[in-house]
Amino acid sequence: MKSISRRNFVNKLGVGLGSAAVLNALPSFIVPPDEALPYEGKKLNIAVCGLGIYGNLVAKALQTSQYCTLAGIVTGTPAKAKEWKAKYNIAEKNIYNYTNFDKILSNKDIDLVYVTLPNSMHKEFTIRAAKAGKHVITEKPMATSVEDCKEMIKACSDAGVQLAVGYRLHYEPHNMEIKRLGQDKVFGPVRLVEASFAYKTYDTSKINETIDFNDHGKWRLNKELAGGGALMDLGIYCIQASRYVQGLEPVAVTAQFGPVNNPKRFEQVEETISWQMEFPGGAIANCTTSYGYFIDRVYASADSGTFELSPAMSYGPLKGKTSKGELDLPIVNHQQAQLDGIGSVILANKKLPAHITGEEGLKDMNIITAIYEAARTGKRVVL
Ligand code: NAD
Fold first, then answer.
1. Domains identified in the chain, total number
2. Are 187 and 308 in contact (CB under 8 A)?
3. Is the residue at 164 inside a domain?
4. Are 65 and 48 in contact (CB under 8 A)?
5. What's the predicted TM-score (pTM) here?
6. 276 has which bridge partners?
7. Does 274 lie in the same domain as 141?
8. What does the pLDDT read at residue 28?
9. Hey, which of 116, 197, 218, 269 would you mutate to test ligand 1's pocket, going by the most ligand atoms within 8 Å of its Cβ?
């Protein structure tokens, strides 16, 4: 097997030569590294909708993006509008709130709306952006139900705009390398994937705290806003990795809710859940996610070798190895890589690759729904 060094990877891209033409011709998962590129064409003008933690990360990445720029904002908080306007030099006419957002229809200076609101709000703002003729990136999970995903896809298709889901790891070299190793059967067919992603989100000594759902970030514990717990937020990455390592769709799932260590905090959504996915040909994926402890790894066992990433799904720097040695791959800024990958395709008037679109989000939501059903009923759910 040929291992790809950072230098080879970059040279292979022609990035060293600074060729935007070469980059545009590349597969969508290959992204320019941080030190890139003298692209000087039109940039995609993005409005960030929802100025929380992730909206801030997207805004930061837009400052160094080659293909996209932060042109507008949508916020329900006047103080944030003022702060962002000054910090990022945003034109007053490109600042919207949740009520007047639809007026973005007549604003030719915005090409795409990036929705970074709580999960259940993705649907409304995706559909409103589509009706205003704007392309959309919506964060993961795409929505909180299969029905909502379908409505979002239809609205974007009816409006003739593109819909992407914020699957940043599809632009991250380590994850795309395990996708290649698995799908190209470099070590033969994959028989087992273990993928776990969990964050410790609370102080375990304060298990009797009272939760105010209006506190910052607490929407993740509110079923209506989040749609579910750790599975919706973090487990979705494990579903993704299990699917892209194999290039296959699961045919059945079983699942178990884990122990609840903090009952007040996890009254509405699960703290921990484990699940198993059966794939055509007999491969199994074993996954766990939780809000109660840390883990961040993907491991794949194939007929003649193994490959793994740890850390695998957080912002990095990610690290990995195969049974033949360490992986030596570029470390990229995930958000910038994703924005450049998506921006360059839309600017070239091309269709986004299926593996990051609304259809992909819908596939994950179907699987999430089946996992919850399996955990609730204790039964194997066929997909
Ligand atoms: P956050 O709580 O930091 O931000 C949410 C924003 O939505 C805030 O600005 C808040 O004011 C606004 N908001 C509007 N109406 C609200 C309401 N009713 N309740 C709560 N907030 C409301 O959350 P976040 O961590 O930025 O997550 C936002 C989205 O981004 C989620 O869908 C999340 O899954 C996704 N996300 C993705 C990644 C990734 O790596 N791709 C990482 C973190 C979060």
1. 2
2. no
3. yes
4. no
5. 0.91
6. 254, 286
7. no
8. 37
9. 116
Residues 161 and 185 in one domain: no
Q: What is the pLDDT of residue 10?
A: 34
CA of 126 to the centre of ligand 1 (A): 14
Do 182 and 300 form a contact (C-beta atoms < 8 A)?
A: yes
Last residue in a domain, options 168, 193, 221: 168
CA of 128 relative to ligand 1 center, distance in Å? 18
List active site positions. 140, 237
Q: Ligand 1 centroid vs 252 CA: distance in angstroms? A: 31
**Has residue 340 been placed in a domain?**
no
Establish whether residue 140 lines the binding site of ligand 1, counting it when its CB lies within 6 angstroms of any ligand atom: yes
Among 168, 201, 230, identify where a domain stops: 168
Question: Is the bond leading into 78 cis (omega within 30 degrees of zero)?
Answer: no
Provide CB contacts within 8 A for 294, sequence distance 6+.
198, 199, 200
The answer to whether the CB of 186 is under 6 A from ligand 1 is: no
Number of H helices and E strands in the chain, helices first, is 12, 15
Q: Residue 281: left if φ>0, alpha if ψ -120 to 50, beta else—which one? A: left
Cα–Cα distance between 142 and 146 in angstroms, integer? 9
User: What is residue 366's three-state secondary structure?
Assistant: helix
Give the C-alpha separation, 183 to 29, whole Å: 14
Q: Is 50 in the pocket of ligand 1 (CB under 6 A)?
A: yes
Low-confidence ranges of the chain (pLDDT < 50): 1-35
Whichever domain contains 221, its CATH number is 3.30.360.10
